[in-house]
Structures are given as structure tokens and as C-alpha cells.
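Notebook p. 47: complex prediction with iron/sulfur cluster.
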Amino acid sequence: MITRQPLPARLLHHRGVNSQWTIRTGDIVPAGAPIQRGERWQHAAATCVVAHCDADTARLDVIDDTPPGPEAPLDVNATSASDLLRRVHEAGIAGLGGGGYPTHLKLLTAARHGVHTLVINAMECEPGISCDAALSAEGGREIQQGINAVRRILAINTVTLAAASTMQVAMLDVDTRHIRENPSATDGAERYLLRDIFNVILTPGEYPVHHGFVVCNIGTLHAIGRAISGHVLTERVTTVFGDNRWLPIGLPLSELVRSDTARVGGRLSGHVVRVAGAMVDKTTNGIDTASTHMALPCIRCGRCDDACPEHLPVTGLLTFSAPPRVGTLERLGLANCVECGLCNPACPSDIDVLATLRDAKTTLIAERQRRSATALANTRATAHTHRLATQAEQREQRRRDRLARLRGATSD
Amino acid sequence: MSATVVMLSLVLLCAAALLLARRRWPDDDAPLVAEIDAVLPQTQCAQCGYPGCLPYARAIAEGAPLDLCPPGGTATHAKLVELLPDRAPGIAPQTPQPLIARIDEAHCIGCFLCVPACPVDAIIGAPKFMHTVLADACTGCALCLPPCPVDCISLRQPGSA
Ligand code: SF4
Ligand code: SF4
Ligand code: SF4
Ligand code: SF4
Ligand code: SF4
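Predicted complex, C-alpha cells below:
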């Protein structure tokens, strides 16, 4: 039984990538109305007054806790693929498995590549997380509706279900099923799913769509199903201290956790965050207490190297991560770390290897962005200088021509 | 006889090694300028006193101080010091907030004066038509602000409306 968290007095939101606020400080937003548009839509979980809104953050004060009423439902079989896709976009559906990538973009890319198989990822394998299993027990109808919608949007031939044995998925109408007892912690990663079920190996930089597959998390399919029946995404199921609850998106973590820090995500791949100012977003699949342990120095035992499913030189990555040496980290393949967290339990010194690598990865990504931005500016500046020089030269040439013509005229 | 052969092969070997070394480590300054330019932020704002990043890179290679680029902030300064360890480091400028330009389109009179001023061609428009800034290309150098006769260009934080 999934319980429902009561609405808090206040909701917090961050502006998503490539998205714009539709609200200003002082506005009143009705429940379910968009507060953000663009690539990532976001809606108010309740009727609110906008207490504060700046470039990146917004704070909404809840004034009425009636939940958002549904919009008109769509009939999957009588609606065009593009209208279904628009509904998915405007309901703010994003990858609820933890990725948070906008689902309409994923489906658009899939449509462009032409995919034949939808893989339902119900492999929930992160220790300590059971929100998908809880959802599969109660939300079968919505999940089925989500599957039908994706099937229609992408004209899919085959639907394959990959599920852990804890999922209650017997009634789902799919073409093939792969049920796994006790999946290991990485079995749910897209690339390992495709390897284990279809023998398809993704090289770094390749995605399932390149091989004709689209992989959707079962929770995301549930949200798509709800969107089709008219519900925008304003809440999600999260495993909070072992229990599953519907949490409003934007719920401040301080409503759930008393301590200063908390673990968000699973026990392996989660992050430890500061509770103050943090909130539940669409990717928050678990909340737990952060263990407070003291790490010992690295003894270079190499156990993290052996634990890494991507065969990365983890010890080396760790050495060059603090302070981060971007070039070296890039050469060692940091970008291929799938952030599974298997290196952490392997470490006898209790070092939070994953947290260190994540920080280094953030630096690496920022550095790459900086590099591409400066490359663009450089190209444009060169072109600009060249253009101005050419124009000046042409002007000078015209002047000389005129002068020559005038001289010619006077000498006649 | 064998001594001649040994000496001759040694000579050839050394020549080959020298050629290889020359190819790997060419001795002109051009790569240094490119390396310095790669570290500069490419804002092209001319606040360093040179008409752009590449000219400043050339000047640094010829001995100009390392601490003249404000947009680069501490990060760029640190990289320059790392690249040229035997130079006087100077004082690292503070890292400024990234900004980009915005044209208040209601007030733009289409005079075209801002377009040639922009070092990265980030403003599009034509004489007597409204002008606008390409947010992805603008480096926030502020060079377009002074030429505008109606003061309708301002700098803002990227992402703010
Ligand atoms: S988190 Fe990254 S480095 Fe650690 S085991 Fe997983 S893939 Fe390897
Ligand atoms: S497992 Fe821990 S102690 Fe061993 S090499 Fe990796 S980080 Fe160091
Ligand atoms: S001050 Fe401006 S023009 Fe000079 S190097 Fe720095 S960014 Fe480039
Ligand atoms: S638009 Fe203005 S601020 Fe932006 S790069 Fe061009 S001149 Fe600089
Ligand atoms: S200088 Fe000002 S008024 Fe003239 S075109 Fe540019 S923005 Fe418009």
C-alpha cells in the first residue's frame, strides 16, 4: 500500500535545463498549472502563491491543498502519435528511474532512429529502493496505458518486459518476458539489460536507439499512462526509509528528514546531500539516512578496480580526481563510469569512491562545455575579423577604382 | 672497414633522431601562441588592452603580463601561470559572473551600429530592422553597449527572462 505524503506549506523548484519559468514573484498558480515550460515542463502540485522566483530557483507557498483536477483524457487508439507525444511533453514526463531525461525527447530520438522493440525496465535492482515494485502492484492499468501509448507513438512491433521477480507484472500485456530472481546491482542499467537479453553490446557513446531499442522504466510508463488520462506529473512514488510514499514534486527534504544530511537515491549509487534547501524532484527514487563514517586512506589494494563492471582503472581515477586533472581523467575513461556505485562497498577503507568520481565528472563536463563554448567564440571571432578585413579591402578597392575613373575623366 | 661502417651508421642514426626530435618538438613560437590562446576565455572583450584574445596571446608570448584578462578570472590566470612558470604571475583577477547581452527589442531603432561592434557576430539584424542577440554565441563582452544610441542593450544572467 502506497501512502500519500500530506502537502507541505512550501514547495521548492529549480529551473530545468533549456526551460523558462512561467511565473513571477507574487503570482497565484492554480494546482496543476505549468510553472515552467520549454524542454522540461513542471506543474504546481497545489494551488500556491509564488513567494520567490529568481533565475534558477522558485519557492511556492501552498494556499489550498486540493489536488490538481485532471485534464481531458486522450483515447490512445483515436489520437495521433504527435498529439500523444505532445501530451507526454506538456505533462512534464521525465525518466523516473533516476535519469530525469525528458521522455518526449527520448521518444523523439527513438522515432528518428526507427526502433522495433520497447524494453520495459522493471529490474529495480538498487538495494533499498522498492518504489517501482510498489507501483507495479497498484498501477497496472496506468502502466498498461503507458505501454499502449508508447507502442502507438513509435509504431513498436515487440514489447519486452525485463523484470525482477518482486514486480507484480503478470497482468501486463507484453510480447516477451524476462523475469530475474535477485537481480544484481547493475542488471538494471540499459546497456547490461540489452547485453543480457538480446546479446547487443553498446560501445561507449552508443545508446539503445542505435540498435533499434527504446528502454523505458516502468515508473515512467506509469507516469505516461497517467498523463494520457489527464494527470500532469506533480508527484512520484519514492522509497522513504523503506516505505513507499507518493511525494509531491518540490517537497523540501526537511519535511522528511531531521538530520543535516540525507542519502538521496539507492544505497549504492545514491548521493549524500545537505537537507537544507534540497527538494524532491522527478528523479528522487529513494530517501534514507546518510551513514556517517570516517574514510581511511586509500591503500591501493585495487579492489575497486576489480569491482567495476566497466573495467575502469578506478584507483587511477581516484588519484587524479582530487584535485581533478581533466586531461588525464578523460584519457583514463572517466566519462564511461556508469555511476553504479559498485566500487564503494568493495573498498576496505570505506572511501566514498563514487562521490569523488562524481565530483570529478562534474568538473570534466564543465570543462568540456567551456571548451566547446570557447571553440565557438574563437571560430566566430576569426570569421568576424576576416569579414571586417575583407569589407575594408573592398571599400578601399572601390575608392581606388573611383579615383582612377576620375583621373581618367579629367585627363581626357 | 668495420669501423667506418659503425661510424657511418652512428652518424645516420643520430641524424634520424635529430630529425624526429625536430618534428616532435618544433622550435618556433607559433604553438606557444596557440597554447596561450587555448587558455584564454575567448570573450574577445579587449579589456586586456589588446583587440581580442589572440592578439593578447601573441603579446603574452612576447612578454606581456599574465594578469590582464578580467573575464578569465582566477582559472585562466592559474592556467597561464602553469603554462609560463618562469614569468612574474601578477595578481589574479576575480572571476566575474557570466553574463550575456539582451536587446530590448521594443526600443531598438535598427541602426545597425551594434553589429560590427560584436567581435563574435552574435547580433543579427539589418539596417532599419529590429536586432537581436544569439544567446548561444554571445560571450558577454559588453562591446555592443557603447555604440547603441538608444541604450537598449543590457547584460543579464544567462537563463533569466
Ligand atoms: S561507479 Fe563508476 S567507477 Fe565505480 S564501479 Fe561503477 S562504473 Fe566503475
Ligand atoms: S578499494 Fe579503496 S583502498 Fe582499495 S584501491 Fe580502491 S579506493 Fe583504494
Ligand atoms: S581581456 Fe577579453 S579580449 Fe583580452 S584575453 Fe581576456 S577575454 Fe580575451
Ligand atoms: S552581443 Fe554584445 S556582449 Fe554579446 S558578444 Fe556581441 S558585443 Fe559582446
Ligand atoms: S545599436 Fe541599439 S538601436 Fe542600434 S541596432 Fe543595435 S540594438 Fe538596435
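Notes: DSSP finds five helices and four strands in chain B. The interface with chain A takes residues 37-38, 40-44, 52-54, 116, 118-122, 136-137, 139, 157, 159-161 of chain B (CB under 8 Å).
Next step: compare against the earlier run before touching the bench.
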